[in-house]
Write a structure and sequence with these properties.
CATH class of the largest domain: Alpha Beta
CATH architecture of the largest domain: 3-Layer(aba) Sandwich
Structural class: alpha+beta
Number of helices: 12
Number of strands: 19
Largest sheet: 6 strands, mixed
Strand content: 25-35%
Number of domains: 5
CATH superfamily of the largest domain: ABC-type transport auxiliary lipoprotein component
Shape: rod-shaped
Distance between the termini: 129 Å
Radius of gyration: 49 Å
Length: 489
């Protein structure tokens, strides 16, 4: 028992010795790397109780007192800039302080703000300075470091002066940029002009959120901002498309005499400014025609389309679609031209029903009615009145064209239709077949431009009536086909 008691006592003593040694080592090591304020004078009250209009800059510790003074002043300047409403992007603040405002930037508005800040901030001076000395041990060596506190005044008067300069400089630069954007618009560079104006607005907006602006400064900014906004709003609505060459006469098989032309321009007051280099797509919206068109507006804002050949009768509609940039939001970007038909036509149809010639041809009358509705002028004085069906079928195209060359006809339609092959199904119910042929001659092109043949049957209450119904059915089909081919549907 005595041995056990002595052993416990020895263990306890050993632990106390080890603990004492550890504490001593910690204190010793800490003393080798200790920091001690060696300035006897207490910190002034103005450091902790900051007055209105005073910015207290605190430096890091430096071995050189001059470096500490510069760092403290830089800290005060940084605080002043940060409290001026956030008009300077954060990435520029340190550069302004460190380089005394000598900063290069591609953005004119940012550069302008930096200059205003530099003029008002860089030159500030401290009204009070307090220097603290610190002794710093590192191992068995020690050094002296300095920490500086500065009080920099920046009064409400200074703030107002800064705000006035900032507003005046922004408006001055904005007006220059606005005038430049108007010149761009006058050169037809509408999208670039609008982009410039939107940049002006983006740089005015932050200033309107600043506190401390005088009513006069707010009014100046608002008035200029509203002027720019109004111009942005009116430019797209002031773009016009004009066309020339519409309502010309069009003859099937011939080109149109004059080209179709569009002009795109921006109107400002009583002046017109052409817009070049816009993509234009000319296309046939109705009828048939061959086009040779210009796909961009030239320096005069114009694009032209030559109609090389009219391939259908009736009205021709050609449209020009101008591809404006989507940002412009142009509501009406299409211009339409109408070409008026000026075709003179001559029609001769020989019609027989069950082998007997009819006095009034259903096919001829129905065809002439449709063509007249489509704008054709009918020539009544026909040289074909005395020709038989066999003669009409036998004559060559050259002969037909020669016969009408002095009659003023542009198109000639010749044909024959007849019924036959009747059959009696029962009393008052007969069937008959009909066969019709048509040829269309284009006198201007000196060629046959259409040849059609249709056969069909129909019923009637008598053989003659069945023959007429068959002729009528075939006639209607022929008319539908020829109108479709001529682009008149």
């Amino acid at each position: 028992m005595e041995y056990y008691s002595n052993s416990n006592q020895w263990s306890k003593t050993f632990r106390e010795v080890v603990l004492t040694i550890c504490i001593f080592n910690l204190v010793f090591v800490a003393s080798l790397y200790a920091e001690k304020r060696i300035t006897r004078e207490p910190r002034p009250e103005w450091i902790d109780r900051i007055s209105t209009g005073i910015y207290v800059g605190v430096s890091h510790r430096f071995p050189d007192e001059a470096d500490a003074r510069a760092d403290a002043l830089a800290d005060a300047k940084r605080q002043i800039i940060e409290t001026l409403g956030g008009v300077i992007e954060s990435e520029f603040i340190d550069e302004i302080v460190e380089r005394s405002g000598e900063i290069n930037t591609d953005d004119a508005f940012t550069s302008s703000r930096i200059k205003v800040v530099s003029r008002n901030i860089i030159s500030v001076k401290p009204s009070k300075v307090f220097v603290e000395k610190w002794k710093v041990r590192e191992g068995f060596k020690s050094r002296t470091e300095y920490q500086v506190f500065v009080a920099v005044p920046f009064s409400e008067e200074n703030h107002r002066k800064f705000m006035k300069e900032l507003v005046d400089e922004t408006i001055r630069l904005g007006e220059n940029r606005y005038n430049e954007s108007l010149k761009l618009a006058q050169q037809g560079l509408i999208l670039l002009a609008l982009d410039q104006m939107q940049t002006i607005q983006a740089n005015i907006a932050p200033l309107l959120k600043l506190t401390g602006l005088l009513p006069r400064e707010v009014a100046l900014l608002n008035r200029f901002n509203e002027e720019v906004a109004a111009k942005i709003e009116t430019i797209p609505g002031s773009i016009r498309i004009e066309g020339r060459g519409g309502n010309q006469s069009a003859k099937m098989g011939l080109p149109v005499a004059e080209p179709l032309e569009i002009a795109v321009f921006w109107i400002d007051g009583d002046q017109k400014f052409p817009i070049p280099n816009l993509s234009v797509n000319f296309s046939v919206a109705k009828g048939k025609a061959t086009l040779d068109s210009q796909n961009k507006t030239d320096r005069n804002g114009k694009a032209a389309c030559v109609v090389k050949n009219i391939a259908s009768a009736g009205r021709i509609k050609i449209q020009a679609d101008i591809l404006f940039p989507e940002n412009l939001k142009i509501v009406d970007s299409r211009y339409s031209f109408t070409l008026l038909p000026n075709n003179k036509i001559m029609v001769k149809i020989i019609e027989t029903n069950l082998g007997r010639p009819v006095d009034i041809s259903y096919l001829e009358n129905a065809l002439l009615e449709q063509l007249t509705d489509c704008g054709f002028q009918v020539i009544e004085n026909s040289p074909f009145r005395q020709l038989t069906e066999n003669q009409l079928q036998a004559e060559q195209a050259e002969t037909i064209i020669e016969m009408v060359k002095n009659n003023g006809a542009d198109l000639v339609i010749l044909g024959a239709i007849s019924s036959g092959q009747t059959s009696k199904i029962r009393d008052r119910f007969y069937f008959a077949r009909a066969r019709g042929t048509l040829k269309v001659y284009n006198i201007q092109c000196k060629s046959v431009v259409g040849s059609y043949m249709i056969e069909d049957k129909n019923a009637g209450y008598s053989a003659v009536n069945a023959g007429f119904e068959a002729i009528k059915k075939v006639s209607n089909k022929l008319i539908d086909q020829i109108l479709t081919e001529m682009g008149l549907e």
